[in-house]
Amino acid sequence: MKCRKCGEKASVNMRQHKLALCKDHYLEWIPEQTDRFIKKYQMFSPDERILVAVSGGKDSLSLWDILVRLGFHADGLYIGLGIDGGINYSNESQRLTEEFANQNNLKLHIVEIEREYGLSIPALSMQTQRGLGKPCAVCGLTKRHEMNRIARDLGYDVLATGHNLDDEAAVLFGNTLTWSADYLLRQGPVLPASDGLSRKVKPLCRFYEREMTAYALLRGINYIYEECPHAVGSTSIYYKEILNQIETARPGAKLTFYLRFLEARRSGELFVEPNLEAAHLHPCTNCGQLTSAPDLCTFCRMMEKVKPTPV
């Protein structure tokens, strides 16, 4: 297989795009496409301050790398969850994130959940769920709260996450199966800013996971290869496996699924009714973040139950 642009041996073959590229042209193509998506979906402008949520994984570190290469003002935010596992997952992911930031002379904010609130994510989950199930719900709630808090408190215009096409297609698949109207109406490359909440964007939403893996490897980005130990057997991974089977038989199926959904939502063809009660948002009386609850947001209600002593 030869590179479409120069005729040299191709390093990456993308069947869904009918495109093969050598290393150099692939490392040019990914930022070029990212910039195109940023402009197409009006994610942000060159003069805005961007906070990139980084986890030590390939997608978030690659996104940070791409935005810096494109000339955007992008700083990083790492949230320490206190998750162990066979390799001490949180320590290793933080080490790799700090290594990337130091090597590229980038600004990185670090928030340690246990230092901020007195409990790690696993410990918090044990107290709030009495040890039942995985801590994924508690983890997601806490990360969203902290990302919003830091972006707001430090004055960032945009919060960027490294969700790729596989992530977005799996979420869309699950929300479609359950016809979760509120989630379907909110899913997309951009979630507009509202009072107390920065704009949220997903610049990698149209790249396949394997495309981002190839970018990280060819770019020489060291990232954590292992999945979170609590992710094993999760519903999202199950949905990804189903979609991978479809993609194998029909290359481009995931991208078509996602793009047709975005077009249906934009044109008004997506016939779903929003939860009108949930649409009435106001500031949480404790942290100030928007909530549909009468007083405290879900995160603050959770913390009220455990009342940990800060360390």
List the domain count as a whole number: 1
Give the name of the CATH superfamily: HUPs
| Structural class by secondary-structure content | alpha/beta
Q: Which shape, going by the Cα principal axes?
A: globular
Q: Largest sheet at a glance?
A: 6 strands, mixed
Overview of the structural elements:
- This protein is an alpha/beta fold.
- It has one domain: 3-Layer(aba) Sandwich (Rossmann fold), CATH 3.40.50.
- Helix content is 48%, strand content 12%.
- The protein is built from 13 helices and ten strands.
- It has helices at residues 23-40, 58-69, 89-103, 113-117, 121-129, 136-153, 165-177, 181-186, 209-219, 235-249, 253-267, 276-279, 298-306; strands spanning 12-14, 19-21, 49-53, 73-80, 108-112, 158-160, 190-191, 199-201, 282-283, 290-291.
- The chain has a six-stranded mixed beta sheet, with helices on both faces.
- Helix 5 (121-129) crosses helix 6, helix 7 (165-177) crosses helix 10 (235-249) and helix 7 (165-177) crosses helix 11.
Spell out the blueprint of helices and strands.
Layout: E1 12-14, E2 19-21, H1 23-40, E3 49-53, H2 58-69, E4 73-80, H3 89-103, E5 108-112, H4 113-117, H5 121-129, H6 136-153, E6 158-160, H7 165-177, H8 181-186, E7 190-191, E8 199-201, H9 209-219, H10 235-249, H11 253-267, H12 276-279, E9 282-283, E10 290-291, H13 298-306
Parallel strand pairs: 3-4, 3-6, 4-5, 6-8
Antiparallel strand pairs: 1-2, 7-8, 9-10
